[in-house]
Amino acid sequence: MKTTSVFAAGAAVSFFAASFAVAGPEAEVLHYWTSGGEAKSVAVLQEEFKANGGTWTDMPVAGGGGDAAMTALRARVLSGNAPTAVQLKGPAIQEWYEEGVLADISAVAEAQGWADVLPDSIAGHMKCDGTWCAAPVNVHRVDWIWANAEILAANGIDMPTTWDEFNAAAEKLQAAGIIPLAHGGQAWQDATVFETVVLGIGGPDFFKRALVDLDTEALTSDTMVAAFDQMRTLRGYVDDSFSGRDWNLATAMVMNGEAAFQIMGDWAKGEFLAAGKVPGKDFICASTPGDGYLYNVDSFAMFEVGGADKQAGQALLAELIMGQKFQSVFNLNKGSIPARTDVALDGFDSCAITSAEDMASTSEAGSLLPSYAHGMALRGASAGAITDVVTAHFNSDMSSEDAVQMLADAVANSM
Amino acid sequence: MTEWLERHVPKMVLAPSFVAILIFVYGFIAWTAWVSLTRSRLLPRYDIEGFIQYERLFASPRWDTAMNNLFIFGALFIIVSMFLGLMIAIFLDQKIRAEGILRTIYLYPMALSLIVTGTAWKWILNPGLGIEAVIKGWGFESFEFNWLVDPNMAIYTVVIAGVWQASGFVMALFLAGLRSVDQEIIKAAQVDGIPTHRIYSAIIIPSMAPIFLSAFIVLSHLAIKSFDLVIALTGGGPGYATDLPATYMYAMAFSRGDIGQAASSAMIMMMVVFAIVVPYLYSELRAKND
Amino acid sequence: MTDMPHPKAKTSSLSKTVLRWLLYIILCLFALYYLMPLFVMLTTSLKSLEEIRTGSLISLPRDITFDAWKTAWSGACTGIQCEGLRPYFWNSIQLAIPAVLISTLIGALNGYVVAQWRFKGANLIFSMMLFGCFIPFQVVLLPMARMLGLMGVAGTIPGLIFVHVIYGIGFTTLFFRNYYVTIPHELVKAAKVDGAGFFRIFWSIFLPLSLPIVVVTVIWQFTQIWNDFLFGVSFSQAGTQPVTVALNNIVNSTTGVKEYNVDMAAAIIAALPTLLVYVVAGKYFIRGLTAGSVKG
User: Fold this and answer.
1) ABC transmembrane type-1 domain: from which residue to which, for each copy (chain C) (predicted)?
2) Is B289 on the interface with A (CB under 8 A)?
3) Closest to A59 (Cβ–Cβ): which among C53, C77, C238?
4) What pTM was estimated for this model as a whole?
5) What does the alpha-carbon distance between residue B287 and residue C19 come to, in Å, rounded to a whole number?
6) CA A379 to CA A125: how far, in whole Å?
7) pLDDT tens digit string along A350-370?
């Protein structure tokens, strides 16, 4: 059995070698990356796992941004048949830890020095009570705004850096008969736009107080009213049939020149690239107006399982996930950037390189923040309660003041 | 001994099913009731905390919407499907040519999984892509059909797709009923010169009471459990305007890690079902017994 | 097929023809309503992704291509494996056939007891079973998972069969009970006088009469079980996932590129067995019904 590993420290290698002597590492992996580029990305991990003598059993469950996978996970845990490794992210990791079902992977993490290569705020998500309990695979940036380059040039518009500039540009586009904002009216997409607006209008500190710490004062502040006002303004910039539209159809509107902008995470880039569009030439990527960086980090958590072979599988998996090679290949396929900051970005496109640079600078400035809309900032119940209000406001004629009041009530009721 | 066995054999045949239902339906309802009194989050816990989950539930505007939708959707879905099913069955019973093909066309929606037919419906009903766009393209510029994106009307699009899926099966049930009515009686009535619509309303339809029971049970079961339909068609939107109790419960239990809240909503749903179904069952079965 | 003679109802033949035409027009309009989504799915599955991305979603395909169908059947990724729906079909068949047969048989026996062998409390038990039809499946997921774990069948196909049988009993019993209730009690009485026992009467009198209701029950159960996603996704593990879970894996991807043509083709492929049951059984349905109407 081949036990060598190009990136592990010597200590780690001997640790694994000891486990391998018992049986080959095994892992049943529950994940929700099932189609196209996503599936190819996971396949990279599986191949490396195999090359190191492991047996990988695939347990894919897609749907609802992982909802279906989480349903399956609960059933599996309750039936005493937990999968070895599970795609989990954000505070859900800590929630599962509190149920006492997660395994400790600190041995691998410390041997490999994860703490030195991950941005602090991202490392924080991977720890439970001081021990390492999950391994990050990528960083998606959420606060992107995508634009059709041709339309912007034709109308003499630069990428907006403030929401006022954005509004001015949108008015101009509307007058020219172009839909300013391509948007899909699904709750999570409404929430995605909302959080970028809060970040842009309130700034990183306000974002943190309101959507991470759930500070009542921030939630009911005038700044929050202003954020809802901007949402109302944006509502005027989307076309009439936006309800229920999939995000990728909105992306297609930007590509086809029907619409000028879309606010969406960097997975939208995959659609542009799949259609043969070139970043910088056909489409432009920029961060949404304002400072800061909202991240959405995918990770794998290891569940408490019996058997040396499975435990060896968990250690090997954790080691591989954080390996430089995997982090690079995976993210090239997926459109995101490596979670490790020391991976060479050869071959990544200009949007990804911007993303990596911004991640480094915002990490230092303290404005590298978790995305609430993608389940990184809050526990499910609170995040869901906020989304309910945001989407109800966006899809009705509710006043911003009422929305703010509802927001505070909903957050209190979700505790 | 054999005589005793002979006398009790019916009970023994029914017993395993009875025990299974007792455990897997009523036992689980009791379990849910218990959990609804706890602070369960990600996984069920069993320390009773009182009625906090019910208080949270009734304070939630989204739950209000979900319950309202259940009544609108449930009533329309059941009535329209029954009416349409019965009507098509009667039409098909008129010695129609190509009945086999038509019947299959009406029936097939039940065979398709909503995971994807939802997408097709979403496109058809979307004003920018579907019917509205097509008819506008024909030159009727003022034509409007934008229920899908109107929070006040979106629930009716769920009814349209729901009826599409279920009415064919109801049609089949009714057709089965129509065909098993004694032909002699009908012939006799025709000989007496009773008009066709009277034959249906006075003789045939009343004799189909058990079919109505089956259809009602099937439809109300589908209405209560309508979950895939909403998820695939509207995702609960615009906003949460088309949320139903089943989707609310699922969201709480599985995407939000709020199992206690989900359990309390399940209990309320069950009470609603109980209030509607039990009187109906009682009257139906009572009538049969006499 | 000729019209039934209506000796007394002397409507003029002209208005009769008009009515007849009207009837056909109405039926065809309904047929259009029912066919619309299938039309959208079929046309989309025959388009190239390029055409979907640029064109109208519900127009006819410009160039027909069957690539999407090939991909859906044997090439689409449902996770790491990119073998399409094919491997999952077998799981679904292994699961659906026993589950349908067992639940139909139990339903027939239960219905027979409730309709013809009434004992004290039989109606109450029947009502309890019916009420069981209404329990939302989301409610039973977690306790059921625990039970399956305790029974040692978590994640297996027998476990899934068990779940489907349990929650199918209510409906199958309902269907058979409503059918058997229309059979005169004298039949059982006469048979008993002849010395036939409980099972003998069921086997040689009731079962032969049951074809139409067996067809209805099988259609219902097969549709429910084949199309089930919630149980399939919760109580399976790698290797036992049914076809709906695979379909969902192909169709649902949050951050991947969406291939609508493959999605639609996959959906139609996944539905083929149920469609087949409807088309084939629909025929027996009518034959059975004719047989049923001569009964009694």
Assistant:
1) 89-281
2) no
3) C238
4) 0.85
5) 38
6) 12
7) 999 999 999 999 999 999 999
Q: What per-residue confidence (pLDDT) applies to C55? A: 66
Mark which residues 295-334 of A lie under 8 Å from B by CB.
Answer: none
Structural domain boundaries in chain C: 13-65, 86-294
Radius of gyration over every alpha carbon of chain C, rounded to an integer in angstroms? 24
Taking the Cβ of residue B42 and every Cβ of chain A, the question of whether any pair is shorter than 8 Å is answered with yes
Burial C134-150 (b: 16+ CB within 10 A, else e): bbbbbbbbbbbbbbbbe
User: pLDDT per residue over B6-46, tens digit each?
Assistant: 778 888 899 999 999 999 999 999 999 999 999 888 888 88
Beta strand A368-370 with A293-296 is parallel
Segment of A228-237, B270-279, C142-151 carrying the highest mean pLDDT: A228-237
Looking at residue B82, its pLDDT comes to 94
Q: Domain coordinates of chain B in residue numbers? A: 54-289
Contacts of C81 in chain A (CB under 8 A): 58
Q: Are C260 and C49 in contact (CB under 8 A)?
A: yes
Question: Cα–Cα distances in Å, from C26 out to A321, C22, C29?
Answer: 61, 6, 5
CATH code, A142-295+363-413: 3.40.190.10
> How many beta-carbon contacts under 8 Å exist across A and C?
140
Instruction: Provide the shortest C-alpha distance from residue B136 to chain A (in Å).
Output: 14
A372 touches chain B (CB under 8 A): no
Model confidence at C282: pLDDT above 80: no
- Note whether ipTM > 0.85 here: no
What is the pLDDT at residue B113?
74
C258 touching A (Cβ < 8 Å):
yes
- In this prediction, residue A327 carries a pLDDT of 92
Option in C53, C155, C233 nearest A71 (CB): C233
Instruction: For chain A, say whether B254 makes contact (Cβ under 8 Å).
Output: yes
Q: What is the pLDDT of residues C23-41, one digit of tens each?
A: 899 999 999 989 988 888 8
Cβ <8 Å between A95 and B42: yes
Q: Give the CA distances from residue A132 to residues A97, A337, A370, in Å, rounded to whole numbers and listed in that order.
A: 11, 21, 19
Say what the pLDDT of residue A10 is.
Answer: 41
Fold for the domain defined by B54-289: MetI-like fold (1.10.3720)
Chain C residue numbers with beta carbons less than 8 Å from the beta carbon of B134 are 58
Name which of C57, C138, C293 is nearest B183 (Cβ-Cβ).
C293
Could you tell me which chain B residue has the CA closest to the CA of C107? Answer: B17
- Topology (CATH level 3) of domain C86-294: MetI-like fold (1.10.3720)
User: A34 and C81: CB-CB below 8 Å?
Assistant: no
* Cβ atoms B253, B259 nearer than 8 A: yes
Whether A224 has a pLDDT exceeding 90, the answer reads: yes
* Tokens describing residue B6: 């002979």
What is the topology classification, in CATH, of domain A10-140+297-350? Answer: D-Maltodextrin-Binding Protein; domain 2 (3.40.190)
Query: Which residues between 250 and 279 in chain B have a beta carbon less than 8 angstroms from any beta carbon of chain C?
Result: 250, 253-254, 259, 262-263, 266, 269-270, 273-274, 277-278
C139 closest CB neighbour out of B32, B108, B217: B32
In angstroms, the CA A271 to CA A284 distance is 13
Q: Is C174 on the interface with B (CB under 8 A)?
A: yes
Phi, psi of A386 (to 5 degrees): -65, -45
The answer to whether the CB of A318 falls within 8 A of the CB of A185 is no
User: Are residues C234 and A72, on separate chains, in Cβ contact within 8 Å?
Assistant: yes
Range(s) within chain A of domains with CATH label 3.40.190.10: 10-140+297-350, 142-295+363-413
